Amino acid sequence: MRTNVGLWIDHRKAIVVAVTEKGEEIKEIISEVEKQPRRSGDSPLKGTYESHQVPADDSLQRTFTGELNVYYDAVIAYIRDAESILIFGPGEAKEELKERLEKNNLGSRVVGIEIVDKMTNNQISAKTRQYFAKSR
After folding, report:
1. Beta-strand (E) ranges in the chain?
2. I need a labelling partner for 99 at 20 to 30 A (CA). Which of 21, 47, 70, 110 fits?
């Protein structure tokens, strides 16, 4: 059975619309990624501020990247069987996911990448149906 997928994605969540001959299915995948890696620790204004209390920036970045990798792997596991994948969304997550798909030998299934802002599930569904109706 032929499956076309429309995927709206940012670093917070992914909305996947899978369209088949039997209909469509919408799945939301939530990431555990913090919006921005930030330093924690005591404020110098509140008292002691020792360097060993504050995690290093590279440690925060590694944690952020690791969380993103887990999130992208969950998205890829869900869309792995799709024949065609349209990726759209507002930020960098589109390109990052495309790179991971290429590393997993799934890059050839990506039929388009588009920049769009926030959308409702109904708008994502409609965009996916319209895109794949044109490509038939």
Report:
1. 4-9, 13-20, 23-30, 84-89, 110-115
2. 21
